[in-house]
Structure formats: structure tokens, C-alpha cells
Amino acid sequence: MRTSTRWTVVVLVVVVALGWALWDQLDQRGADTPAGRPGSAQPGESRDRRDADTPEALAGPRAAADLPPCPASGAGAGPEALRGITLECVSDGAPVDVARAVAGRAVVLNLWAYWCAPCAEELPALAEYQRRMGSAVTVLTVHQDENETAALLRLAELGVKLPTLQDGRRRIAAALRVPNVMPATVVLRADGSVADVLPRAFTSADEIAAVVNPQIGAPG
């Protein structure tokens, strides 16, 4: 074998060995990165809330917002489309089985985000509508952005105290086939059926009652 050929073979062996060593090192390092940990989002993957929104970081905003707890499980299994979806209650971080939370009651699901200007105008109207309707209807808002702190601060600023779910991945909207607009409202009957999907903003409690109440058999 010529000397030049032998040197070529040696160089190829060294390159291959270095390549395998580098691959193994990167593979081990990848297992320790945040993206490789369970519960962390991969690049481009949505998640329910930011890593920064820890229970400690949320304590102050939660106290400022002073939201009511999310609804307890009602009668029955709830809407089939929502079964298997568990989200965090913004008021206290408790897990909520969404289908069971809305089961057996008339529910107005309002989908919004802290940065949405029409949502901010609509939320006080929803709060007033809930005050008027009392136990006849449950208004449950769904925050559709990862920034849970910003949601709490927005609700505190508006003085709106409605039970709220944190849904950064927009699983409820996907399950109920809600158009990709905000705000949007889904009206659920007590039997779990969807009475209406309303991709629009309301400006007053009267307007909400006029549209929603006939669909759920509630007084105007």
C-alpha cells in the first residue's frame, strides 16, 4: 500500500471517530436541555403557560385579580367534545376537568386574550351579565395565551371577577371548532349540546342576554 493511501485511510478513520464522539456528546446534552424535559415546549410548539408563570410569580397577580374559583363538577360527563381536556384554573392553579365543570348547567364560554382590545371592552359586559343572571347561567372565560400573569393583571385592571381557565394551546377552541378570532363566545346548553358559536364581541349585558338567553331557555 502506498504511503499516501495509508495516510488517507488514517485520516478517514479519525474523522469517523470524531464524528461519532460529537454525535454522542450532542445526544447526551440534548437530554439535559429544557426542550428535552417533560412539560417543556419544543421550538414552535404552543403550551398552556410560560415557564416564568410559576406559582410564586403568580401569587401577587392572583391576589390582585381576586377571581372566584372555577366551577365544580356538575351532573353528568359533560360535552363529549371537551372530555379529556384538563386545564388550570387561573384563580388558584387547580386542575379543572373542563367537560365535568360545564356539565349539567347552561354555560357561556368566552374565549379571549390579554392583548385583545375588543376582549377588554367585552369582559365587563360579561361580568354584568353574570351578575344579572345569577345561578341561571355560568359565565366561564378562557384565556388563550401563554402569558397567565398578563391575563391576571388585565382582569385586575378591568375589575372583572369571573372564573377563568388558562388555555394557551387553545384546546377548547379546537375541540369546539371555534373560528380563529377573539373574542368568541360558545353557548352550551345544560344537556351539553352547543347552542351557538359566536365569533363576535358584545358591548353590553343587554346585548348578551338578547342573543344568549333564548338559546338556553333563560329569562331575558
Summarize the structure.
The protein has 220 residues and is of the alpha/beta class. Helix content is 40%, strand content 15%.
Note the main attributes of this structure.
cytochrome c-type biogenesis, seven-stranded mixed beta sheet, 40% helix, membrane, transmembrane, 220 residues, disulfide bond, Thioredoxin_ResA/DsbE_sf
Report on the architecture of this protein.
The protein has 220 residues and is an alpha/beta fold. The protein has one domain (55-216): Glutaredoxin (3-Layer(aba) Sandwich), CATH 3.40.30. The protein has seven helices and seven strands; from the N terminus they run H-H-E-E-H-E-H-E-H-E-H-E-E-H. The protein has helices at 3-30, 55-65, 98-102, 117-133, 148-158, 171-175, 205-216; strands spanning 86-89, 95-97, 107-112, 138-143, 164-166, 184-188, 194-198. The chain has a seven-stranded mixed β-sheet. A hairpin with a 5-residue loop joins strand 6 and strand 7. Helix 2 (55-65) packs parallel to helix 5 (148-158) and helix 4 crosses helix 7 (205-216). The radius of gyration is 25 Å and the shape is globular. It starts with a helix and ends with a helix.
Shape: globular
- How many structural domains in the coordinates? 1
Classified in CATH, the superfamily is Glutaredoxin
Task: Please state the average pLDDT score.
Answer: 84
Main sheet record: 7 strands, mixed
- Per CATH, the architecture is 3-Layer(aba) Sandwich
> Could you estimate the helical fraction of the residues in percent?
40-55%
Are there runs of 5+ residues with pLDDT below 50, and where?
3-44
